[in-house]
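Support request, please re-run this one:
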Amino acid sequence: ASGSRVFFIEREDGAAVGDAAKSKTGRNIFISSTENNKQIITSARNGRLERIAEDQFLILNNGQRLDQNNGETQLKISEFEEYGTKISTNRINSPDTAPTKTLRTNQLIKSPTKPKMAELSWRFGLAIAAFNLVLLAIVVSATNPRAGRGFSLVFALLAFLVYYNMLNIGFGWISSGRVSFAKLMWLLHGGVFAATLAWLIVRSNQWSWRNLLPLRT
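Re-run finished. Output below.
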């Protein structure tokens, strides 16, 4: 994550990325790392992931390692038949380290961190937004003959764009802790539902703002 080590790996021809991840093997591996003011480049023909005790190790076969101090031209070259380097102390692909988009909904609910709650707001928000947009479509479908059908179409498109952008903005706000999950759900989706329902009631009863003004004699 800090960029101190970068890994490159070539998968087998015709093999899917998921298959390579399950087998935990690869070929033509290249590692570039920076340790203690030293640039280290390691390459190997093939390698595999192994779990030793509580740590994850990348075991390389038939390769070489180049060490060079920053600012110097002298190189140290080492060849090896087998070489192991520790990847991390946490299990790769564990629920704690996996991206929130790849986790199931029940996993997000069990550990309600800010990024996971943001992902929940996105998943639930899409379902609620679909319902609210259907309700809004019913209201907009009752077009005003004076305004024409074009006005309703443009309004529906703008409403969708604004709603969708608010979902993205809310995702970022929850991730950064600016707003809570419950507050966003109530204000955004609850507000849109209340406004659309009120508009539907006004349209059904054919109320108009002119009815609220005093009649002229």
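The first strand starts at residue 5 and ends at 10. Residues 27 and 137 are 54 Å apart (CA to CA).
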